Amino acid sequence: MNKLIALTLTLILALFLSVACTSAPSPASAPAATQVSPTEPPTKVAFAVPPTPTETPVPPTPVPPTPVPPTLTSTPVPPTPTITPTAAPTIPPGLYVTELRTDPNPALRGPDISFYAKFLNATGAQQNYRWTVYLYRPDNLSRVTGETTRTESGITVGNSEFKSQGTWKIPVGGPCEDFVARVVFFDQNNQPVPFMKPDGQMFQKELRVCALIDLPNLATPTLLPPTPTPTPGPGIYVTDIRIQPEPPTRNIDLNFIVTFANTTGTAPHTKWVVFIYRPGEPNAFGQTTGATSTILSAIADAQSAGAWKLSGGGPCEDFVARVAFFDQNNKPVTYLGFDNKPFEKTFKVCP
Description:
The protein is mainly β. Among the domains are: 95-214, Immunoglobulin-like (Sandwich), CATH 2.60.40; 236-349, Sandwich (Immunoglobulin-like), CATH 2.60.40.10. It is built from one helix and 18 strands. The protein has one helix at 2-23; strands at 95-103, 114-121, 127-137, 140-147, 151-155, 158-163, 177-186, 192-194, 205-209, 236-244, 255-262, 269-277, 286-287, 291-294, 299-303, 317-326, 332-334, 344-349. Strands 3, 4, 5, 7, 8 and 9 form a six-stranded antiparallel beta sheet that branches. A hairpin with an 8-residue loop joins β12 (269-277) and β13. The longest helix has 22 residues, at 2-23.
């Protein structure tokens, strides 16, 4: 309690002294010192600062990516093989047969069958040959069972095709039959010699002849009417000239065998001769001796009287042979062929 009273009195005294000091006048001579209270720090006033506008981000314009070319993966290329060219077979000089076809094709029983032979002339010059087509049975190749008409052809260098004169056929009313066809020429002794192929083997072609109804899976062809053969009027015609020896050679006597066709119904006794011309020249270069023959009413051969030869040296030469008879005035008149044109045969004479 005493402590409380003492504390109270102390506070009163302190308050009194404080008031007295504040109300007392200051001396005139000395200016009163201004009591500067300690400066309080200024009160910070918060001003509202407008927020910095945030720019709305503009999405960038999409730029298409620059295409990057794909990395090419090189495919390994196999090396080009070195091809060694095959050497073409060397064909020895000669005259060969390489093909034989028929018309109609396939060959039929009944109609006439024509033969077309394809030749390869590797001699370097035209060759004149008399040839035909022989037909054999496969089980007997030594016996000819059919043939076409003998044909004279001037076979040029290279490949060429010739039709054999005449035709061959077998009658209807039987099964399919097999044959072997060979192309043959006739040597200086008039003996048949088979043509060879370029490989050195004998040329032959297997041939099957059937009736039309027996051909398997073959549409019935439209058979064209045969070309009408001109019917010659009554007369004596020349259809062929053969020369012996064959081939014609310089400085050797040449004999001419003429095939006559007599449609007169009689057998005249006729004087005739063979004239020799150079191609394109109107006048005869040479002639055989005139022959007198009885020309039968049929197709028959007659040989010229005497011979003709080309003498001297020189290259191969071409000639044309014509057959002429002598009229009542002893003037030569050229025989015609079935086509009513002067019949002539070209041939070549070589060394």
